[in-house]
């Protein structure tokens, strides 16, 4: 699991069929100090997260493929929760 901040959403006219109907977010991963880490990633979202939202992500590819309903889907990251409060 990884903490990240939604920095936008992605729109694609051509994409893998398993991604049709899914919201795709652009998420900046955060390190333990809640500072940006590495390049942003694309994650599918069914929770309604928007720009500026702190989210919890998972990269379990098998579960992501089950979520979209296709074994050959290229999806890796998906939102697990919207974080209301972070305690140290």
Describe this structure in words.
With 88 residues, the protein is mainly beta. It has one domain: EutN/Ccml (OB fold (Dihydrolipoamide Acetyltransferase, E2P)). 9% of the residues lie in helices and 36% in strands. The protein is built from one helix and five strands, in the order ββββαβ. The protein has a five-stranded mixed β-barrel. It is globular, with a radius of gyration of 13 Å.
Percent strand: 35-45%
- Radius of gyration over alpha carbons? 13 Å
Query: What is the name of the CATH superfamily?
Result: EutN/Ccml
Task: Report the principal-axis shape.
Answer: globular
- Overall pLDDT, averaged? 93
Oligomeric nature of the chains: single chain
Helix fraction, binned, reads under 10%
Q: How many β strands by DSSP?
A: 5
Secondary-structure element sequence? EEEEHE
Q: What's the CATH first level?
A: Mainly Beta
Structural key phrases:
9% helix, five-stranded mixed barrel, mainly beta, OB fold (Dihydrolipoamide Acetyltransferase, E2P), 88 residues
Please describe the topology of this protein.
Layout: E1 2-10, E2 23-29, E3 41-45, E4 54-58, H1 61-68, E5 77-82
Parallel strand pairs: 3-5
Antiparallel strand pairs: 1-2, 1-4, 2-3, 4-5
Question: How would you summarize this macromolecular structure in one to three sentences?
Answer:
With 88 residues, the chain is mainly beta. The protein contains one helix and five strands; from the N terminus they run ββββαβ. The chain has one helix at residues 61-68, and strands spanning 2-10, 23-29, 41-45, 54-58, 77-82.
């Amino acid at each position: 699991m990884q903490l990240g901040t939604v920095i936008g959403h992605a729109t694609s006219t051509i994409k893998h069929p398993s991604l049709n109907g899914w919201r795709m977010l652009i998420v900046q991963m955060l390190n333990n100090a809640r500072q940006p880490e590495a390049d942003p990633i694309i994650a599918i979202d069914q929770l309604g997260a928007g720009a500026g939202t702190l989210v919890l992500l998972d990269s379990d590819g098998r579960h992501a493929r089950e979520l979209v309903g296709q074994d050959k889907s290229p999806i890796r990251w998906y939102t697990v929760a919207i974080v209301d409060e972070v305690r140290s």
